[in-house]
Amino acid sequence: MEILGLLADGFLVALQPTNLLLIIVGVTLGLFIGAMPGLGSVNGVAILLPITFLVPPASAIIFLAAIYYGAMYGGAISSITLGIPGASTAVATTFDGRPLALNGRASLALVTAAIASFVGGTVSIILFTAFAPPLASVALSFGPPEIFALMLLAFATFVGLGGDDIPKTIFSICIGLVFAAVGFDEISGAPRLVFFDISGFLHGVNFLVLAIGVYGIGEMFWTIDSTRGKIETLNPKMTFSGILADSKEGMKQGWMGTTIGSFLGFFVGILPAAGATPGSLMSYGVTKLVSKRSKEFGKGHPGGVAAPEAANNSASTGSMLPMLTLGIPGSPTTAILLGGMVIWGLTPGPRLFTDQSEFVWGLIGSFYVSNFFALVINLSFIPLFIWMLRMPFTIMAPVIFILSVVGGYAATRDMHDVWLMLAFGFGAYFLRKLDYPLAPAVLAIVLGPIAEPTLRQSLLFSSGDPSIFFTRPIAGPITVIAIILILLPLVKVILDRVRGVKAPADA
Amino acid sequence: MRRAEIITAGLLALFSIYLMWKSAELEVGYIPDEGPGGGAWPFWLAGIMLICTIIIGYNGYRGTSPPSQSTEPLLDAYGRKMLLLVGGGIIGFVGLVHIISMYGAMFVFLIYYLRLLGRHSWALTMTLATAMPVIFFFFFEALMRITLPKGMKFTEPLFNFLNTIIY
After folding, report:
1. pLDDT at position B126, please?
2. ipTM of the complex
């Protein structure tokens, strides 16, 4: 009951006219920043941080949290309408969002994304409100072996799906992981995989460079080639009844993805150093794995939009948890928020909830309010996004190419990366034609920087003994599930062979 | 596409070997008290890639993978033309960024794509080709404080003038 009283106080803070205005402005700004390829919540929060020194700390963090929320919603928009992930957190939304848009169901994808985001946000805020302190200690019990086991599970969900060619899927995961290893060896500090001594490789391969190359450039070549340049934009005009019908269909087909994304996203979000991007990719993989219609994923299934969208919103709230309770940021954006809190004179940590209760509960109250406004503002902009899709393809295509080039540059501010992105685009086009799945490579380049150090630290703890991944109480079961998933396709192949041999004998 | 499948697998196998060789510049084994060497992770991953490419190539040779069963060529005449016109156009666009700035290159690329490839009217082409760089300039330089490439030195006076407007 005490929590409800504190939450009510929080709502009073969030609903003060200044704070309400900041929420609405923040969500709208975030929506457009998130929709811009190459720019994510981290850019919005970083750029607008200095402005917040003009208002009290509670209003400041409410404004930044609203931008964060808006950007989470916005990332899906360019993933669906243009096929370019607006932010790293929306990469997985592209997998099914873009095919839906190409099939004339962009409105279904956008509405599903908005509703899933809202549900994910709401579930995570409720979890946050009720379980903040105990969950923070659970997150702390995740050491390197547990986090590596979780990463292994993420890769395993992609391998175990069975739909794609297994050697090609494993190849795709490995190449993504190798690209993630380019730059410096984090532990020894030695340069690593600096191809032909080109200095641009020293800062590594930014995952957005690969993601935009694959989905912005490569996918566009493939679309133009496969449709012979005659792309019909079938997306009909939006009406209120249309939005209602899409909402119903989105909820019906996307409920499982939304549920998985909401809970898994939150949990991955609270793990230090994980954040919303791995959360959304893992939720997509798990939803595809457990869905009865997993073969439709990647071709335009609303569940494939709902899962990552619910997850990235849920994870964005989740990543606030270690920041507020322990002072450990769960994502780059929360790292900047943490910096802001220090500047505002607040000390993050367990005492924040008691010493600055008005600030904390005002923030939690603002999560609820921001989430509601983000849904309303997002839904009201959907007709505009659909209108953009109705433009002739010969206008859309150069705009997408320009956004890809600018997005590739904005990610790292290095022209080397733009050329690299083009190379990835051409490579992705040919590999796509030969049925190489490319989503696992994007997943791997995101998770690589988490997977490698945790593996190395774990092996260092155990003096090189890999049994550490099996003997620890949390890591053990996760590793076993991951291995079963990886072996599943192999068992299927063997069973099919056995049946194949049996069948003629029976006949 | 069978030949393309086998040749691509071969090229990717060579790339995997190159990655293994490149990773081996750092220690690829286990160093006592230090853990796995800096090159171990990419080295063994590239090793798995090599095994995968061998299986992919073998499947292609046996004709069991879908692309190897297809009789269509990897690139037909349309695909080649598309790559030349669209792909070449983008390469030209990125090349021009180094010379006439991101905004100048955008202007030229939009004229090329809208007028020559899209066959849109001059009025629409020029409106979009002018409006987009202007919108991008104010969004990135003024609002987001992100400077996009300005090309070679001769563009300086123009950008100096524009900067006086936004700062």
Report:
1. 95
2. 0.93
* Rg of the Cα atoms in chain B: 24
Place of tokens 């090229």: B11
Residue A248 neighbours by CB distance under 10 Å: 11
Q: Does A457 touch chain B (CB under 8 A)?
A: yes
A50 in contact with B, Cβ within 8 Å:
no
Quick check: A199 pLDDT over 50? Answer: yes
Q: Which amino acid is at A312?
A: N
Sign for the pseudo-dihedral over CA of B18, B20, B21, B23: positive
DSSP, res A183: E
Among B residues 89-128, those touching chain A with beta carbons less than 8 Å apart: 90-91, 93-94, 97-98, 102, 106, 109-110, 113-114, 117-120, 128
Handedness of CA A275, A66, A399, A111 (dihedral sign): positive
Which chain B residue's Cα is nearest to A180?
B42
CB A321 within 8 A of CB A128: yes
Contact between B97 and A452 using a beta-carbon 8 Å cutoff: no
Angle at which helix A57-81 crosses helix A17-35, to 10 degrees, equals 30
Alpha helices in A141-275 (DSSP H): 144-159, 166-180, 207-212, 219-226, 240-270
How is chain A split into domains, by residue range? 2-506
- pTM assigned to the model: 0.79
Domain locations along chain B: 2-69, 77-166
**Residue B35 contacts A where some CB pair is shorter than 8 Å:** yes
- With a pLDDT cut of 90, the percent of chain A lying above it is 15
What is the reported pLDDT for A236?
63
B129-153 confidence digits (pLDDT tens): 999 999 888 888 887 778 889 888 8
Per-residue model confidence as pLDDT tens digits over B4-13: 999 999 999 9
Does residue A256 contact residue A294 with C-beta atoms inside 8 Å?
no
Q: Does B52 touch chain A (CB under 8 A)?
A: yes
Please, what is the average pLDDT of chain A? Answer: 82
Which among A43, A392, A422 is the nearest to B94, CB-wise? Answer: A422
- Whether residue A430 lies within 8 A of chain B, CB to CB, comes out as yes
CA of A57: how far to CAs of A102, A370, A500, in Å?
45, 17, 68
Question: How many whole angstroms from its chain centre is CA A351?
Answer: 31
Taking CA–CA distances from B107, the nearest residue in chain A reads A402
Q: How far apart are CA B158 and CA B167, in angstroms?
A: 14
Partners of residue A36 in chain B, C-beta under 8 Å: 139
Alpha helices in A327-438 (DSSP H): 332-343, 352-355, 357-389, 393-412, 415-433
Query: Is the per-residue pLDDT at A414 higher than 80?
Result: yes
Round the average pLDDT of chain B to a whole number and report it.
Answer: 90
Supply the pLDDT for residue A506: 41
User: Is B35 within 8 Å of A392 when comparing Cβ atoms?
Assistant: no
> Cα A23 from chain centroid?
23
Task: Classify each residue of A63-74 as buried b or exposed e, where b means 16 or more C-beta atoms within 10 Å of its C-beta.
Answer: bbbbbbbbbbbb
- Answer for the pair A28, A65: CB distance below 8 angstroms, yes or no: no
